[in-house]
Structures are given as structure tokens and as C-alpha cells.
């Protein structure tokens, strides 16, 4: 058998290639019922469209089990069924390939950085006291997206830098990693350059301070005519005149400095301007739906003042509204966090009693609160509305679709392995042998294949898909699958919990039972690693107790 880590996409490509058809004919099964009979299926309808009468040449069918490749799953059998062409994987070998040591370092860690993305979150330009749950949603999304992109080798710049970090306590409480610090002389120079460009701009009219002039306004810029002349698509038709202030220019200067910090793809090309066209940098404004219009104004102003290639790469990731049910008054982000923390404490006391009142549980409650809020904000597609019910205690340690449930199952795994380690130290069990000595043919329980096939196998591709920022078909809005990781963790937690409740992992210390126990521990160790890696993209540390 070939070495290397198998993947879903590579296996699907190999299956389509075996039938001599470039189109994606095959689907990966995921439901427990279908996985009892097959792992991949070329549905009857797809075969009918690709082959005369839907009849696949027998020699093509017989060639499928012999498919090989470093990223192709080992296949056991391919047969015609009423549903279509069904393939089963050689499961013991798949367990060995996926649970064994990987040859060489991970690709993302060994390879160079691939491009740069500037994530701009206008919600952080206001004061901390003005931060609302709707703003928090876009900040959490940008923070999560930055982690996903970095995991794929992308260089990420976060804008704006926080000028008064100590004032943003709610960001620290939510474990949001955001840069801070003064702009310095480079920012001052950039503002001066923008002012000079503004003075030369034919679309701008200088404003003298006097009666009828808004305080701080230094110029009026006509945006509408520029948008029409350039044929820009996707911009609000109500864009017209923008009143430019010092703060407006500072916002643009911060974006310019972030772009300058991005690596250049061709370092031998000396730039003719401050922004080389060879720099592989894209700019994504992560905004809530109420901020989009104002950001479009700044976007067009930037295009006018600095008509370089970088300003044409601005795109928008727009978050849907956050509706708070029956608020007695507008609730701030800090109030929202404190309310959820109190609710999580009350729920933990109900479930765990006096244990939850111990000082050691303070950090646990904090982590559960952060998990609850992050999953509440991020498990819904970013375009859709979120409804926060703050009156009723909607935070629970029991619900299967909450961040607390995910953390609970992660802690169960930690408890399992600490219990096993103590038993090894006491001489109850021998240590876990090297993976090369494990017998994976012992893994015959339905839930074991479900964990491997639906979670361990596709996990790297799940992270890749979640980090993708596909260009828009038209206009300036993009769509990202930022809910993918939360949904993946929720489903993994449900299937792991079902398996763990059904199967006794640490059995009686009889030698004839060790093979199965060790194989299961190796599987669950890999599941634990997936939990940890996925939670890291949410800045959530794994819990050792709960």
C-alpha cells in the first residue's frame, strides 16, 4: 500500500479518473446507515448521464479497487448496486494510514507563506463603550478567519490597531488576539501624503472652517461621479458627497501601512510606487450590515486618492444583523459577556453542584463562557441574522449544539487519557505500544469508522474550505464558510458522545483485551488532536476537567 495521508478530494478525483470521466461522479457517504454498506457512491442518475444506458464498462469497475496513490484511500471492493456504483474502503489499512505517523513535516508548516490578507474591522474604530453584540460578531469573525488563514500559510494583517488596549477588556475576556500600539511616524507621513493627494484631487473641494461647516471637516469629495466614471459594480447607489476629516485620513493611512507590511511575491522587482503591483495582498473589510455604507465611502475615497492595484482588491465580508430579544435598553458587548458568564455559572452549579463553586472552576467557567459566545456568534452563516435571547437562560451545559457541549466532550477525552496514564503508572495496564504494533482490525464498531471517515479523514480539507475567500462573481461582496469549524465541532461532539456512551474504552486488564483497547486509544488520541486543532482556530484552550 502507498504511504502518506489519504484525503477525500484526492480519492474522489482518483475514482472519477478510473471511470475515464473528469466530471465529479462520486459522492462521499457520511450517514451511519449508508456507511454500513458503502463508503463512496456514483449515483445511478450520474452514471446514466455519463455512460450510455448508465452501464459502466466492466474493466473500469474491476480497476477501481487497484487504485493507488499517496493521498488515495485504500479501496477494497467496487460493485454495481441499485443505488449506483458502490465502493468500500479497506478499513484496517485506512485506520493504519490515518492513525500512523505522517512522513515528514506538515505541508503548511514546511512551506512558505502564500500571499497576504488585510482584515479590516471598522467596529474597532469606535470607543469600547460603544461596542455592541452586532459589532462583536464581526470582530469574532475576523479573529477566527485570521486563525484559519494563518493555518493555511497566509500572512494576515489585522486593522485597526487598538490605541488604548487596556480599555478593551471584553476583547481580552473573549480571548480575541488583536494588535495594539501607536501609529508612529510612518502613519503620520502616510496621513500627510493623503492630504497632499486630497489637495490635488479634482473630485475634492476644500472646506474652510466657518458658520455652516461641520467641525473637523477639511474637504468634500464627490464619490458618485467617480463610481460612475470607473463603472464600479456593487456599490450603494446613494454614495454621493463625503465629508473628509482627519480621522477619515487616519483610517486610510492605517490600511495603507498594513498593505505595505505585506510580503512582496517578487522581491527582485523594485516598486515604482509605494505599493508594488507584484504584491499579493487582498483587503477584506469585515463589517456588519449597518457599517457597510460608511466603509464603502472610505473605500471609494481610497481609490480616488491612491489609484493603485491594491485599492482595487478591496472586498466586503458582510455580517447579518444581530437581534436582541426584548432588551430593556441597548446592551453593550461587556454587559453581554457578563450576562452570559452569570448564566454559565448558574447552569454549572445546577449540573455540578458545589464543585462549580470552587475557585478552581473560575477558569473553567470563563472558558465555557467564551465558548458559548463564540459558538453563538460563529455557528451561523455570516450572512444570516442571529437572534440573542438574553431574558431566558439560553446557555446550557446540556444542549448538543452549544460551545459548552463541545468543551465538555473535549474534557471527557482529557479525563480518559489521564485515567489511562494513572493506570499505567499503577501497573494496571502496559503503556500504549508504538502505532506500528497496533492491530487496527480490532476496530469494528460502527462509531469508530464514523469518527475516522467523517472527521479525522476530512479535517485538513475542512480547515482549507473554511479559510477560502473566493472572489465574487460580480460586485464587491464575498462569502466565506466561517461557520464550518463550529458546525464540524458540534457534529463531532455528538458522534463522539454517542460512541463514548456506548463503548467501554478502558476495560478489564486482561491481555487478550489489550489489542482492542490500544487501537481505540490511538483512534481517540487522534480525535482529541482534531478537537484541539479546531478549537485553536477559535482561541479556545482545551479543558482538562469539567
UniProtKB/TrEMBL annotation:
One of the GO BP terms on file: arginyl-tRNA aminoacylation
InterPro entries recorded: DALR_anticod-bd, DALRD3, tRNAsynth_Ia_anticodon-bd
GO molecular function, one term: ATP binding
Gene3D superfamilies: Isoleucyl-tRNA Synthetase, Domain 1
Positions of the DALR anticodon binding domain: 406-546
Species the sequence originates in: Emberiza fucata
Name by which UniProt lists this protein: DALD3 protein
PANTHER family found in the cross-reference section: DALR ANTICODON-BINDING DOMAIN-CONTAINING PROTEIN 3, DALRD3 PROTEIN
Cross-referenced SMART domains: DALR_1 (SM00836)
Amino acid at each position: 500500500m502507498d504511504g502518506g495521508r489519504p484525503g477525500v478530494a484526492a480519492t474522489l478525483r482518483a475514482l472519477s479518473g478510473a471511470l475515464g470521466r473528469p466530471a465529479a461522479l462520486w459522492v462521499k457517504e457520511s450517514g451511519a446507515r449508508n456507511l454500513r454498506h458503502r463508503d463512496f457512491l456514483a449515483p445511478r442518475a450520474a452514471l446514466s448521464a455519463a455512460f450510455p444506458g448508465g452501464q459502466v464498462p466492466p474493466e473500469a469497475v474491476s480497476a477501481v479497487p487497484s487504485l493507488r496513490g499517496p493521498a488515495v484511500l485504500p479501496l477494497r471492493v467496487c460493485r454495481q448496486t441499485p443505488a449506483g456504483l458502490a465502493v468500500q474502503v479497506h478499513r484496517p489499512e485506512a485506520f493504519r494510514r490515518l492513525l500512523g505517523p505522517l512522513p515528514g513535516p506538515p505541508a503548511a508548516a514546511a512551506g512558505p507563506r502564500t500571499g497576504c490578507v488585510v482584515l479590516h474591522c471598522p467596529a474597532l474604530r469606535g470607543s469600547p463603550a460603544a461596542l455592541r453584540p452586532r459589532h462583536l460578531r464581526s470582530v469574532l469573525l475576523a479573529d477566527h478567519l485570521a486563525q484559519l488563514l494563518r493555518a493555511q500559510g497566509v500572512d494576515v494583517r489585522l486593522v485597526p490597531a487598538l490605541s488604548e488596549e487596556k480599555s478593551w477588556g471584553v476583547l481580552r475576556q473573549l480571548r480575541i488576539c488583536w494588535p495594539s500600539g501607536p501609529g508612529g511616524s510612518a502613519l503620520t507621513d502616510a496621513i500627510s501624503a493623503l492630504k497632499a493627494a486630497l489637495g490635488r484631487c479634482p473630485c475634492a473641494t476644500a472646506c474652510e472652517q466657518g458658520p455652516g461647516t461641520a467641525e473637523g471637516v477639511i474637504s468634500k469629495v464627490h464619490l458618485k461621479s467617480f463610481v460612475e466614471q470607473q463603472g464600479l459594480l456593487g456599490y450603494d447607489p446613494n454614495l454621493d458627497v463625503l465629508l473628509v476629516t482627519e480621522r477619515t485620513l487616519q483610517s486610510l493611512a492605517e490600511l495603507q501601512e498594513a498593505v505595505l507590511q505585506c510580503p512582496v511575491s517578487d522581491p527582485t522587482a523594485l516598486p515604482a510606487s509605494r505599493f508594488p503591483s507584484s504584491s499579493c495582498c487582498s483587503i477584506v473589510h469585515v463589517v456588519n450590515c449597518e457599517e457597510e455604507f460608511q466603509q464603502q465611502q472610505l473605500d471609494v475615497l481610497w481609490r480616488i486618492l491612491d489609484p493603485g492595484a491594491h485599492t482595487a482588491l478591496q472586498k466586503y465580508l458582510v455580517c447579518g444583523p444581530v437581534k436582541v430579544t426584548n432588551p430593556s435598553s441597548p446592551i453593550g458587548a461587556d454587559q453581554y459577556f457578563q450576562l452570559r458568564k452569570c448564566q454559565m455559572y448558574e447552569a454549572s452549579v445546577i449540573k455540578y453542584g458545589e464543585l462549580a463553586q470552587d475557585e478552581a472552576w473560575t477558569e473553567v467557567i470563563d472558558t465555557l463562557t467564551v465558548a458559548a459566545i463564540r459558538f453563538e456568534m460563529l455557528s451561523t452563516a455570516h450572512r444570516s441574522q442571529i437572534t440573542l435571547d438574553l431574558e431566558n437562560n439560553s446557555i446550557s451545559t446540556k444542549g448538543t449544539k452549544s460551545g459548552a457541549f463541545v468543551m465538555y466532550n473535549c474534557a471527557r477525552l482529557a479525563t480518559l487519557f489521564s485515567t489511562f496514564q494513572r493506570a499505567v503508572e499503577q501497573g494496571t495496564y502496559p503503556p500504549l505500544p508504538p502505532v506500528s504494533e497496533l492491530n487496527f482490525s480490532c476496530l469494528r464498531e460502527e462509531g469508530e469508522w464514523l469518527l475516522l471517515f467523517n472527521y479525522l479523514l476530512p479535517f485538513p480539507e475542512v480547515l482549507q474550505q473554511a479559510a477560502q475567500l473566493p472572489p465574487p462573481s460580480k460586485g464587491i461582496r464575498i462569502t466565506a464558510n466561517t461557520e464550518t469549524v463550529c458546525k464540524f465541532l458540534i457534529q463531532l461532539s455528538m458522534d463522539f458522545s454517542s460512541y463514548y456512551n456506548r463503548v467501554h474504552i478502558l476495560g478489564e486488564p486482561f491481555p487478550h483485551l489489550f489489542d482492542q483497547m490500544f487501537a481505540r486509544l490511538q483512534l481517540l488520541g487522534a480525535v482529541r488532536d482534531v478537537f484541539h486543532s479546531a478549537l485553536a482556530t477559535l482561541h479556545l484552550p482545551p479543558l482538562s476537567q469539567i
